[in-house]
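Appendix B. Raw example, untouched.
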Amino acid sequence: MTELLAGKQRAMVLWVEPNVGIRLRQLREQRGLSLRELAEKCGLSAFRIPAAVPPDF
């Protein structure tokens, strides 16, 4: 249940913060990765992208 709630909270932050999508696109372009590859590099599923990418990534 906690994981589901956390996923909903993240989705809400993505909706409120449009800059997150821009940052994800920038990271993908800089590293030449697909969204799935970027998610795997962060230890996530491509369907559960976090609201923010760690600054030291």
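End of appendix B.
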